[in-house]
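Dear U.,

For the methods section draft, I wanted the exact inputs and outputs in one place so we can describe them consistently. I've listed the two proteins in the order they'll appear in the manuscript figures. Please don't edit the token lines directly; just add comments below if something needs changing.

First protein:
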Amino acid sequence: MKLSVPNIILIGMPGSGKSTVGVILAKRLSRGFVDTDLLIQTAQQRSLQNIIDTDGYLALRDIEERMLVNLHCSNQVIATGGSAAYSNPAMTHLKRGGVVVFLHADLETLHKRVRDFSDRGLAKCPGQTLDDLFMERFSLYSSYADITIDSCRLTHEEVCARIIEQIAE
């Protein structure tokens, strides 16, 4: 299937399915796949958690922003880190190059999926809970989204089908 959008950018909470859905979607659409968390880890030669432990969560957000505003690609499915939405310059740049899809998962689903919250490499304030993070980020994701897909009660394949449907409209 050929879609006219240059890139499909996936945003959402950790555990919403961005990386898994991204791989499947890229295969279905014969596109490349970019996981920005992996790009950061490769460029920094260390894990996201190590960046946070060593330099702090704000340093990770700065690194992420610089990487995203300098990301130039086409015909890709891009899975962003959960904190990408904190950066208006990064999100503005990504939106210029494609359609932004918010994979929304409710808190109950996220609690089931995210087992390693404290050492997952999340750019969050010390002591911040998953619930706090969800409340803080939800409006950011919603504001940048061109399309919102509920990823809670669907299989990954069904999420991909909904994305393709909505982009094709």
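Second protein (the one for the lower panel):
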Amino acid sequence: MLAVADPDLDDGPRTGKSATTRMCAVSREVRPIDELIRFVVAPTGEVMADLKRKLPGRGLWITASRKAVAEAVRRHQFSRGFKRDVRVAPTLPADTEFLLVRSLTEALAMAAKAGQVVSGFAKVEGALALRETAALLHASDGAADGIRKLDAIARQRGGNRDESAGFPIVNVLTSAELDLALGRSNVIHAALLAGPAGKTFLLRCQILVRYRMADDDKTEGSGQKF
């Protein structure tokens, strides 16, 4: 008798032949995998997010939004999807967001090590003036005046991108998180320079914003806000 494929669970960690879309176990909508988060069961029996899609075992996919993950917890979707008793922490939505933030700060740290980040108001202003920037970063708890001044320059200059495409302005990390990523204190403003490490950072920004905003894409002015 032929085995029937389980629509909720994948066949294990992703490979080059894995599907590029999956069904959300909550909404039952088929989405690109970049709009989903894979969850697996750890050896301890606890459900955890697998952001890199490389952890062993079969995975359950949930739309990348805090609301969807919270709904999966509320509806006991993980036990049903994995078809066995699993441990699901009530803090799973917050724990997943923490992992997303950590993944983002790690990407920023890699970009900094590659020489693709400058920080400090004056250096950022200079990079914007020279059109060297791929994105502008502000601490989410930074002072409004400095943010407003640099945003105005970014809108005028457009960095090294086509202005019609929108210039990324990132404000999803706190000053403490920027400090941790860049290995210095009191970071409020930074500029991301062109390069592959920067692209990874921006992709992870999109995932974090989608998770926090429940897929509500918001932009402001000519710059794309993250």
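Candidate sentences for the figure legend, describing the second protein: Confidence is low (pLDDT under 50) at residues 158-165, 217-223. The first strand starts at residue 21 and ends at 23.

Thanks,
Y.
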